[in-house]
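Lecture notes, structural biology module. Today: joint structure prediction for complexes of two components.
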Amino acid sequence: MAEPTTEILYRAQRNDPEAMGALIVSQQHYIYNIAMSVMRQPEDAADLTQDACIKLLRVIGQYNGESRFTTWLYRLVINLGRDELRKRGRRAPEMPPMTDDDGETVDPLSSIADDNRWADPQEVATNHELRAEVTQALDKLEDHYRLALTLYYFDDLRYNDIAEILEVPLNTVKSYIRRGKERLALLLGANQSEAILPAKREPVTDERPNRGRFAFALGWR
Amino acid sequence: MKRCEHRTNYDLREEALDPQLTDHLAECESCAQRARRAEAFDTVVRSAMITSVPDDLTAKLLALVPGLMPPMLVRSKHWKLQRRAFVGLSGFASILALGLVIYGVYLLANTVGVGDWLATASTWPGVAIDWLYRHIPSSRSFVAAMIAVRQPLQWMILLLLIWQVWERMPLPNNRQTA
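The predicted structure, tokenised, for the full assembly:
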């Protein structure tokens, strides 16, 4: 559980070094992973993590408990990351407006229906090849989907928390997660095609996605 | 794959499966298969998304906290001197230990009579050089030159060995404190 205890927060807000240290140690993993999602490079993520901790120590007194502490902290990290990217002239991972899920039945998982590697949840946990493919696809995933999915896969974050962190409506979060998964599976399909037929490689676009084996198996129509 | 009305509920659930959905998964093979794949997909993506924090980052972050200096970050002012003293003493102890071992072997050899054989064997180089002088008189100057450079060469080899050992010793990682 990432949420720190009230006592730790109380002591940290009163500049207790041990409580501050405990808070940082308990949150560093989450901060770093969000930073990786925003910055993408390990060195940049480490710098952002340090900047976020400096800011956390400076403004922790302003945390008033209106939202969960982690929600407040992760929003701080993401905003710092966006500022840093803007300073560098890079495009920050903004959340483009998105209509709510329409009636169209898009199933993000049906594309892996005929790939036996996905059949057993116990086996995939130890399948390094599959994990490497997913890591490669994640690298290609658009920033806003990647950020939403990073928050989604944190065990203790609910949709409401994610919406608060990203400052978007709840339905938009649901759309991002659903479409992020679709997109990820499409990219997995594209990777598969590249590995098999490099000459027939086509760019993956939002309008006409390249439906590879994964996407086909997931059954997107 | 047949679309099922429960699928969206399964995908967007936040808690454990509710009883209605559990019942449905028990009845609907298509949804049950899909649920297993969804779980597998989530497992792989979750594990691929989680990146370990770099080893040195925790120390850097803790160093940001005013008034908190964990023991692992504290390094004595004289750590370089201490390190050299440690290396020097270790070298001295090793040489002493080696000397004792050689002396022990020497005593043992004398006890079992190997000493006489060694004494004979130690005359062999002199015999060989006499033989060389007699048969190739010009070799005298070469042997003389070799004897002249022998001692400086020994010292040079010893210094080279010490230098190599010194260079290859791993330095402790420098920890950034800000």
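Point to remember: DSSP finds seven helices and no strands in chain B.
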